[in-house]
UniProtKB/TrEMBL annotation:
Region annotation (Disordered) ranges: 155-222, 415-477
Catalytic activity line of the entry: GTP + H2O = GDP + phosphate + H(+)
Protein name: CobW/HypB/UreG, nucleotide-binding domain-containing protein
UniProt record similarity statement: Belongs to the SIMIBI class G3E GTPase family. ZNG1 subfamily.
Biased composition annotated in UniProt, kind: Basic and acidic residues: 163-190, 448-477
InterPro entries per UniProt: CobW-likC_sf, CobW-like_C, CobW/HypB/UreG_nucleotide-bd, P-loop_NTPase, Zn_Chap_cDPG_Synth
UniProt keyword annotations, A-Z: Chaperone, Hydrolase, Nucleotide-binding
UniProt biased composition (Acidic residues): 417-446
Domain CobW C-terminal: 385-585
Segments traversing the membrane: none
Organism domain of life: Eukaryota
Matches recorded under PANTHER family: COBW DOMAIN-CONTAINING PROTEIN DDB_G0274527 (PTHR43603), ZINC-REGULATED GTPASE METALLOPROTEIN ACTIVATOR 1 (PTHR43603:SF1)
Length: 613
């Protein structure tokens, strides 16, 4: 076991004095507590402090903690600090700001391990470490959400506490109205991943990106509201990184549940009604993918519960989802502790670049520019797990994209509510070419799919939605899921993950986000294309400007507008997917109709808001 506080790549701020931290993430029952027990009882010579959500579950007798590991257990319910004002989308872990800084300053511990609840996103923890809170900020303005129960620290602040998806929905509204300079903040590496992580791929930052409002002169407005959290940090300290460093993000994956979870259409709240905050509409599949994509180390645990062939399949997919992470097959989380403690593996910059979809885009773009051939067959390809990038410089026709492609998934749009299109017949009148194909064959066969949502929710499902009324029992869920997956598999292969952004004829100014995990596809309205942003409002950084320019094509009318979608999956029918998407491209007549506002938008409803071309 290496000594604590090794020098690593996290910066030059004298890490030796910083308390290293390992974060354990993973679904409920995946094996996190089992690993934690190993750490506490391990013979590694470190004094480890542990922050857990539920001490009872640890079920460990203090006497069993090895002498060398003698440490402290801290039970602390996860609580969120919701940033208000210019950075409302930031949600920090207030409990960690407080506990980690306390433990680090205490000085008695060599190491800290945080066991997150199964519904946590590791990225939130990393952001909590990185977040810079201005000293001058008042401690009066943060609201805190403790496990979804709103606790308003500031009696004068009327801001409603929102968590998870609800906060993200609000981001969408804000994002749409955000000014270009707000959208073009150069921020932490995660933002780079979303906006400029690709050396060649730089869609104008959307609301998700404004979430990362850290790291430059524009940050103060967004951060001032984190001041409530600052109250728990000592004077002069403005970030957790002053006293601690995130060393390793470990995600424990339950092999026996992996494919079921990845293809689940359940929301977290369906499975864990008591633990998920009200209004949190995240779903199982997306959280699983996020936990995998953000990890430095993945434990493919419960390896004893699946066959060798299944293990290889999962391992291959994990590798595609996150090529940077080290993956270990484990039984009862048995792993040399040096693989999870003091590894020095976490690096904010690298974490932002880790997702396989992002690497696929980078590789494809680099290959296109340099004319290089694709790399040799990787190990995962041998197990049928592949990825490819679809690109195009012509907008999609919303109706065709929806009917021909998106309805292979359970589709969710995140945007302010609007009327749902009802009459598909108009389509035929508008379309000059693509409409000649029979739409019948493109209807989802799984008509019992989809599920009802609460009235007034901004998120709406449209994929396979027609049988919502029949879908109120779990057995129907399973039936619906099976049917949709089977149909999609027949047409597309097993698309396990897809991600990127797209361009619709009816939304010429907006970067539209695309993210699927298993059977669920979510589309979001992000910020403007840079083609719509005056040059003087572009980020000042020359590297970023160069990347933006590289995304422009020779046609100034198009600018950086494009389709850029990564597909990751097993036995993918790449040619079929490409062909299907090609047929979704709008014809010249349809583009002209869209410009006149005569093309109905089944996806985002109506024409764009003010400022449209
Ligand atoms: N068969 C098998 N069972 C395992 C393995 N690892 C853990 N378990 C069992 O799975 C159950 C859940 O393990 P935990 O370590 O409590 O999982 P957790 O991730 O901490 O779960 P939460 O605390 O609920 O989030 C326990 O009964 C473990 O004994 C494994 O590799 N194989």
């Amino acid at each position: 076991m290496p000594s604590a506080n090794p020098a690593n790549s996290n910066g030059e701020r004298g890490e030796r004095s910083l308390m290293p931290v390992t974060l354990l993430s993973g679904f409920l029952g995946s094996g996190k507590t089992t690993l934690l027990r190993r750490i506490l009882q391990g013979n590694h010579g470190l004094k480890v402090s542990v922050i857990v959500n539920d001490m009872a579950e640890l079920n460990i007798d203090a006497a069993l903690i090895s002498k060398g590991a003698a440490g402290q257990l801290v039970r602390r319910a996860e609580s969120l600090v919701q940033m208000q004002n210019g950075c409302i989308c930031c949600t920090l872990r207030e409990d960690l700001l407080e506990e980690v800084s306390k433990l680090a300053r205490d000085g008695r511990f060599d190491y800290c391990v945080i066991e997150s609840t199964g519904i946590s996103e590791p990225m939130q923890v990393a952001e909590t470490f990185a977040f810079q809170i201005p000293e001058a900020a008042s401690a009066e303005t943060a609201n805190v959400d403790k496990q979804g129960k709103s606790v308003v620290l500031d009696s004068g602040s009327a801001g409603k506490v929102k968590g998870g998806k609800e906060a993200r929905q609000q981001e969408q509204k804000v994002g749409k109205k955000a000014k270009a300079e707000e959208l073009s903040l150069e921020v932490d590496p995660k933002k780079k991943a979303r906006t400029s992580g690709s050396a060649a791929s730089t869609p104008a930052p959307g609301p998700e990106d404004s979430k990362q409002g850290q790291g430059n002169g524009n940050e103060a407005a967004g951060q001032a509201e984190g001041a409530g959290a600052l109250a728990c940090l000592p004077s002069g300290m403005t970030t957790l990184m002053d006293v601690a460093r995130l060393d390793t993000c470990v995600t424990v994956v339950d092999a026996s549940r992996f494919f079921d979870d990845l293809t689940s259409i359940e929301e977290l709240a369906d499975r864990h009604p008591d633990e998920v905050p009200e209004g949190d509409m995240r779903n199982i599949a997306q959280l699983l993918v996020e936990q995998v994509e953000f990890a430095d180390v993945i434990l493919l645990n419960k390896a004893d519960t699946v066959s060798k062939a299944q293990l290889k399949d999962i391992r291959s997919l994990l590798h595609r989802l996150n090529p940077i992470a080290s993956v270990h097959e484990t039984v009862h989380s048995q792993i040399p502790l040096s693989e999870v403690l003091n590894t020095g593996r976490f690096d904010m910059e690298k974490a932002g670049q880790a997702p396989g979809w992002l690497q696929a885009i980078n590789t494809a773009n680099a290959a296109e520019r340099t004319g290089q051939q694709a790399a040799a067959k990787s190990e995962s390809e041998e197990y049928g797990v592949t990825s490819f990038v679809y690109t195009a410089r012509r907008p999609f026709h919303p109706g065709r994209l929806y009917r021909k492609f998106m309805r292979r998934f359970f589709l969710t749009q995140v945007m302010p509510g609007e009327e749902e299109a009802e009459d598909d017949s108009k389509e035929g009148e508008e379309s000059e070419e693509g409409s000649s194909e029979s739409t019948d064959s493109m209807e989802p066969d799984a008509e019992n799919g989809g599920r009802g949502r609460e009235e007034g929710e901004e998120e709406r499902s449209t994929g396979a939605e027609r049988a919502e009324a029949h879908c109120d029992r779990p057995s129907d869920y399973q039936e619906a899921r099976r049917a949709v997956l089977a149909e999609a598999k027949k047409e597309l292969g097993s698309v396990m993950r897809s991600k990127g952004f797209f361009w619709l004829a009816t939304q010429p100014n907006s970067v539209l986000g695309w993210s699927s995990a298993g059977a669920l596809l979510q589309v979001t309205m992000e910020g403007p294309w840079f083609a719509c942003v005056p040059k003087e409002e572009w980020p000042e950084d020359e590297d970023i400007q160069a990347r933006i320019k590289a995304d422009f094509c020779s046609d100034p009318e198009i600018g950086d507008r494009r389709q850029e979608l990564v597909f990751i999956g097993q036995n993918l029918k790449e040619q079929a997917i490409r062909k299907l998407l090609d047929t979704c491209q709008a014809t010249n007549a349809e583009i002209a109709a869209a410009v006149k506002g005569q093309l109905r938008d089944e996806l985002f409803g109506g024409s764009e808001e003010e400022g449209s071309d």
